Amino acid sequence: MKSEALKKYVAFLRGINVGGHHKVPMADLVKEMKHLHFDNVVTLLNSGNIIFDSSNANIEELEKMISDHLEQKFGFPIPTIIRTAQAIEILFKWNPFQNITVTKDIRLYVSFLKHETESNLLLPWTGEDLSYTIMDIREGAILSVLDLSVSHTPKAMEALEKFFGKDITTRNWNTIERIVKKI
């Protein structure tokens, strides 16, 4: 019997190890991913970024399998959003923030949507306090810029959830750069 080829994925877990809540040690996370029979499991940072290989090509099935297993193991819901490594590399090569001047107050973010969502936003969209701008939405990723020099209490997450719901997870662009180096 011929075995299926392994495909590389990146899983983004939402809401773990934030502010001392929903603690999930990375070593335990690797162990649980291996328990699910994933290969070449690597975690990055403490915020729930997992690179792994699987022969299963159904992303929704993988998301459910991981989320259900981790909730059972750790005792709280752990929403999971998965992208292929190839999709992450394409996003990175697209270089969506190339025209943004990064300063100590500028943060670049990618928010991954669990489901493609229609949006009537006229892009770029900027919040009322001018601290948060959604630059583009592409391939299930919302690309945004946060300017902390304008406001130290920006309403970025509130805006994202208002427009796109809670089935999203956000990463700093620096995290995406680090993931690309590992895949």
* Rg, Cα atoms, Å: 17 Å
Instruction: Please tally the β strands and state the result.
Output: 9
Helix fraction? 25-40%
**Largest sheet data:** 5 strands, antiparallel
Low-confidence stretches: none
Average pLDDT for all residues: 93
Q: Which word captures the global form?
A: globular
Helix and strand composition category = alpha+beta
What fraction strand? 25-35%
What are the defining features of this structure?
183 residues; globular; five-stranded antiparallel sheet; 5 helices
List the helices and strands and how they pair.
Elements: E1 7-13, H1 26-35, E2 39-44, E3 49-54, H2 59-74, E4 80-84, H3 85-94, E5 106-113, E6 125-126, E7 132-138, E8 141-147, H4 156-164, E9 168-172, H5 173-182
Antiparallel strand pairs: 1-3, 1-4, 2-3, 5-8, 5-9, 6-7, 7-8
Helix pairs in contact: 3-5
